[in-house]
Amino acid sequence: MIAVIKTIKLSGLLFIFLMIAAVLSAAVFLLFAENYGFLPLFTFTNSEMPLLVIDPGHGGADGGAVSLTGTYESEINLEIALKMAALCQLCGTDFIMTRDSEDISYPESAKSIASKKKYDQKQRVELINSTANAVLISIHQNCYPHASPHGPQSFYSVNDASSNLSVLIQNSMNFSLCPENRRIATPVDKSVYLFKNITCPAALIECGFISNPEESKLLDKDSYRLKIAMALTCAYLQYLDE
Ligand SMILES: [Zn+2]
In 38-64, which positions are buried (b, 16+ CB within 10 angstroms) versus exposed (e)? Predict the structure, then answer.
């Protein structure tokens, strides 16, 4: 039995390793393609497979939290999401995005930041709920009053598919970003509007703490953002495989 468990653990790690190798190759191509500007980033679908919805948290009038280095969370979320989209495109994986820029258009009636945020969240809920076979990965950054907490954290909607996805993401991020991280996938807070109003498999990812000095600096780096995008993409490919 122990041998069987070890084999399962090893094959899981081997899968993550192979996925990282595959996505790393794609990432090298991506960096090359980005430098030479021939890789268009847009919605990409080609089958009736599950459709990944990449959701860069916040945006528009809602910048989210601000990092110790002065970067808005919305900007970090978007950069990771765009890299993830490019990796999915290279891997031939279906996806759509809830936003692909920092600009969001609001109706005249939405005057305050709160009403703009409410309008935007409703639009995202509508998009996700009207997407057949949607699987949501919502990208955020964590913030805490004290500087010491660090490390990625994955949250999930309360259903089996969501917790499977969230556990794979947590394992992938711990393996490739923060091996000493002891955080485990956890149910998302019931007050999160987006997650309260959708039923598809869904994970909310806090990629790191922008309130931690070291992690805040890392999250400003393009290479670290690519590493996060790779960890998320690997986990999603493993989710599709399972
Ligand atoms: Zn956030």
Answer: eeeeeebeeeeebbbbbbbbbbbbbeb
Identify the domain containing residue 171 by its residue range.
2-102+110-241
Place of tokens 């847009």: 42
Cα 90 to middle of ligand 1, angstroms: 27
How far is the centre of ligand 1, averaged over its atoms, from the C-alpha of 138 (Å)? 9
**Residue 10 confidence (pLDDT) above 60:** no
The alpha-helical segments, DSSP class H, found in the chain are: 2-36, 73-91, 113-129, 160-176, 193-196, 213-219, 222-241
pTM, 2 dp = 0.82
Distance of CA 40 from the midpoint of ligand 1 (Å): 27
Whole-number Å distance, alpha carbon 139 to ligand 1 midpoint, is: 7
Domain total of the chain: 1
Supply 91's token pair.
Answer: 């891997």
Least confident piece of the model among 4-18, 53-67, 92-106: 4-18
- DSSP one-letter code for 70: S
Instruction: Check which CATH number belongs to the domain holding 235 and give it.
Output: 3.40.630.40
Separation of alpha carbons 75 and 98, rounded Å: 14
Over the stretch 106-126, which tens digit does the pLDDT of each residue have? 999 999 999 999 999 999 999
